[in-house]
Amino acid sequence: MVTDAQQACFEAGIKFGSLYHQFAGTPVSPDSAPSLERAMAEAIENQPFCASVSVDIDADALAEATDDHGYVELTGRFIEVEMRIEYEGVVVRTAMEMEDGYPLMRLVGVE
Amino acid sequence: MVTDAQQACFEAGIKFGSLYHQFAGTPVSPDSAPSLERAMAEAIENQPFCASVSVDIDADALAEATDDHGYVELTGRFIEVEMRIEYEGVVVRTAMEMEDGYPLMRLVGVE
Amino acid sequence: MVTDAQQACFEAGIKFGSLYHQFAGTPVSPDSAPSLERAMAEAIENQPFCASVSVDIDADALAEATDDHGYVELTGRFIEVEMRIEYEGVVVRTAMEMEDGYPLMRLVGVE
Amino acid sequence: MVTDAQQACFEAGIKFGSLYHQFAGTPVSPDSAPSLERAMAEAIENQPFCASVSVDIDADALAEATDDHGYVELTGRFIEVEMRIEYEGVVVRTAMEMEDGYPLMRLVGVE
């Protein structure tokens, strides 16, 4: 037996793993960050039960880390993500933030 | 409030999204399928709470689909996946299979 | 010995392989195609010697192919790409287009 | 006009960009490195004109970098790659190595 809330949490996890592993490694600079933020959010919002996604690329961290070539490859240390998943009346809110140097994906609420 | 079972399902979803979007698009042929199956499974087993992963690339479907160049890009229609996630005593079993031409990721059991 | 023209062609190839394998598999719909086009172009323009990139996602092909979920995963059949690489005075123009059902990356000119 | 040598260099670049952006971000540990090395090499060898690929994941660098979770995400700092491309009688040898902290893809020889 799987409850609707469990299924909703499973769906939320799929979206996070998808977002991260689709876009990790993308060349990104302070100038190109806004178009990447938007494309990441809109791409994942296509997936089933995904009500909304916001992606924030940390421009300061990016500016500090860019190498001589003026860009870096996207990793979790540069992004904060919030998502809202809706499945059969269950609303799941999730977030990804850095914690102890590790990009932690977590369930914020299941309602 | 988030229960351990919900968290376990969230973790299971992360692994599925990761596996799919990390490896979709990989050039694969009947000859290279075994090494890719193994690498996919071992890569995702590195992730937290991931007890076991098995990946089966459908050699027949692959052989039929390979183009003049002798290979295709990996998509969900060629793979079946089973995973076992263990989180705080909760065991989640998941599977990905084709259903109506769409690669469906699903929760098989939460115990 | 490697000539500047050969190096320029090598650089052009890197950009094509990068663009394709970074973004293949991204969920895309007619609505989200414009943001993805722009993010793909701006991401690759970050790379060294890459003067300009244009990405065109074929909205008609996309609309036809979208499944019940309203989106597809990006593959070469949906995109046309043009790039201009400049290396030590050599200008390389490249394009990706469908040819016999296969997304062909080709050198258009080396000057 | 494009020469065979230029085309061969373009093909070589495509393979490097493909390899890097397909697999960057893959979870990897000292234990799973061998299966990933092999899958990366065999995947890219499927591509046209690609005679051979060798991938070496630096086990020491990996062991040092693994976090509390026992793995890292693959980036250029952990891998060395050699490839041999053959196109219409032209042989191109290429390599990727770290140089000043940046994973440099380069043409070793065109013959």
Automatic annotation (TrEMBL), chains A, B, C, D:
Alphabetical list of SUPFAM superfamilies matching this protein: MK0786-like (SSF143560)
UniProt keyword annotations, A-Z: Folate biosynthesis, Lyase
Protein's pathway: Cofactor biosynthesis; tetrahydrofolate biosynthesis; 2-amino-4-hydroxy-6-hydroxymethyl-7,8-dihydropteridine diphosphate from 7,8-dihydroneopterin triphosphate: step 3/4
Keyword Lyase: yes
GO molecular function: dihydroneopterin aldolase activity
One Pfam match: DHNA
Catalytic activity as recorded in UniProt: 7,8-dihydroneopterin = 6-hydroxymethyl-7,8-dihydropterin + glycolaldehyde
Top EC class of this enzyme: lyase
Subunit structure, as described in the record: Homotetramer.
Annotated family: Belongs to the archaeal dihydroneopterin aldolase family.
Function: Catalyzes the conversion of 7,8-dihydroneopterin (H2Neo) to 6-hydroxymethyl-7,8-dihydropterin (6-HMD).
Name of the protein this chain belongs to: Dihydroneopterin aldolase
Organism, as annotated: Haloplanus rubicundus
High-level lineage: Archaea, Methanobacteriati, Methanobacteriota, Stenosarchaea group, Halobacteria
